Amino acid sequence: MANTQYILPNDIGVSSLDCREAFRLLSPTERLYAHHLSRAAWYGGLAVLLQTSPEAPYIYALLSRLFRAQDPDQLRQHALAEGLTEEEYQAFLVYAAGVYSNMGNYKSFGDTKFVPNLPKEKLERVILGSEAMQQHPEEVRGLWQTCGELMFSLEPRLRHLGLGKEGITTYFSGDCTMEDAKLAQDFLDSQNLSAYNTRLFKEVDQEGKPCYEVRLASILSADTAAVSEVTSKLKSYEFQGNHFRVTRGDYAPILQKVVEHLEKAKAYAANSHQEQMLAQYVESFTQGSIEAHKRGSRFWIQDKGPIVESYIGFIESYRDPFGSRGEFEGFVAMVNKAMSAKFERLVASAEQLLKELPWPPAFEKDKFLTPDFTSLDVLTFAGSGIPAGINIPNYDDLRQTEGFKNVSLGNVLAVAYATQREKLTFLEEEDKDLYTRWKGPSFDVQVGLHELLGHGSGKLFAQDEKGVFNFDPETVINPETGEQIQSWYRSGETWDSKFSTIASSYEECRAESVGLYLCLNPQVLEIFGFEGADAEDVIYVNWLNMVRAGLLALEFYTPEASNWRQAHMQARFVILRVLLEAGEGLVTVTPTTGSDGRPDARVHLDRNKIRSVGRPALERFLRRLQVMKSTGDVAGGRALYEGYAAVTDAPPECFLTLRDTVLLRKESRKLIVQPNTRLEGSEVQLLEYEASAAGLIRSFSERFPEDGPELEEVLTQLATADARFWKSEAQSGQA
């Protein structure tokens, strides 16, 4: 059996997203709008398979064919007849549910590969004796031959997502290195092209010179007679002695499906903002234009307080090893009015609260652009995982001048903070009841502050293509040096492109720190309904949760490569290090022995020192983070951040040893079952599924009733067309 780090356990938690009441309250027109947006999101989410690993599309196609021919109960009878035990068949169901949930065979949270927890030869017997095999023998056998070895392989390079020798990724061809990624980013910056909707493919010509293809995601491939802002970029370039070619057409048949449903959704839009937003998204996915997506995002920002909220595109760059390319995601959700009212009060207080952040006014945006901040119940979230909150769009130029929206996903939070006392690790006994009671409310406060005032704060100093500064270089002083500003963002540079590999984690750390810092404000706690002793308990549990999360984060550190695999968890470890460094017994992490005789640990937070010791330490750290971000000081920012993110076995904490303890006692993240919508006549029905691995599989088996086989063929054709770029990985998987 595989190392437990690379399997999903049979008893993994599975929860269903509850949105029945919110959906019931929608009008027929709103339901139709939500339905078509959901269809667009689910189709687009299939692109994530092509953004994850070479074998992921084949695994998805194989599983989908198996469960279309026989549902989980029917396949179970066959599997047991083939000699599988109940435990082995459950392990296969959990694996399949994991692939669907993560849109691939790597965890969305941690980027670690997971493999089936049963013998390969037993799974092969199930597949080759299945009803799907009888119906489509050539296709099923071909899929198994293509992905079977890679499905189980734990060759060192295949254990994690990464670039070059560090791991596998399909954002880049298999022979690309971090140096290639940096060169490509410089090229993109020189042409004012965004990396968000691109992949990079490298080949070597007859003379041994590298040739790079930058491929944009779009429906259109060959240049067309219609001129757009993209067509002029579709050509060959010489850049720093290297050959680059910009093409388009990545994921074309998938994006065609997305656009068909965005066009249908337009007929049910509530206002002109939504209509224009959708029109620009259609243009973006048709042409491969990020500028069109930005225009759509402007209309989206202007669409204040919609009943049905959504966003779709190549959004988050967490899983690109270089930190610039966006994973496709799309969500559709409905407003939760009670919690949204609290967030509206927080927004109303935002300008005052921003003044409390520990950096000079010049380092804050010239004008706080009052955003929408709503609590939503998710109907659909397509991609590799579901976050608890979102602050988007991610385009720096829009965020600085047009604003943004904050979204807290209420029914996702409800699943996330449902905590069983007996499963709580690394806490002292006297903290467990308090933690269980207040984790949910404290998380609401932290998510609100993190999204609105964390991601929503801070200014980037920039000089545009005409040489105009957005700050006064003569009068603005760096509070860390006492001198004038020495660095800033040049035209074409963005936060992601400059800070690249640390950008996502650094920004998450800044937002988390803002949340911890501002939750000490009585006004904030009063907005959420907490005063007196309750308010103090919320503060304590919020800080305690962050300290514990910093310890749990060690699961996502890879000692062999000395790198982190998850931006949010790296951020929380950094905060733990900052609070430990504050000293005076504020935070301690003590190795112990558990009641089972195995290594354990306990975190302790002195609640009486949070304000006197913790707050000043966080204040100093936050100011340094913001100053280096504002000034684009990559060298200083890296030194600061990577210093705190380093994991060693130095006493007193001995983090590498503690990592073994964390792995020993880790609990897998829950899988989330989402509903489907189905159009019956002119009415939209909500289809819900049980909270189990089998229920999750059924939800996907019924997700594409009209064109499932066609989609699987499209996915495998797209994967096969590019398979040559990862030939060595396929061979190592079969070694």
TrEMBL record:
A Pfam family reported for this protein in Swiss-Prot or TrEMBL: Peptidase_M49
Gene Ontology biological process terms, A to Z: proteolysis
Key word Transferase present: no
Gene3D superfamilies in the cross-refs: 3.30.540.30
GO molecular function: aminopeptidase activity; dipeptidyl-peptidase activity; metalloexopeptidase activity; zinc ion binding
Cellular compartment(s): Cytoplasm
Cofactor annotation: Zn(2+)
Protein EC: 3.4.14.4
PANTHER family noted in UniProt: DIPEPTIDYL PEPTIDASE 3, DIPEPTIDYL PEPTIDASE III-RELATED
Protein name per UniProt: Dipeptidyl peptidase 3
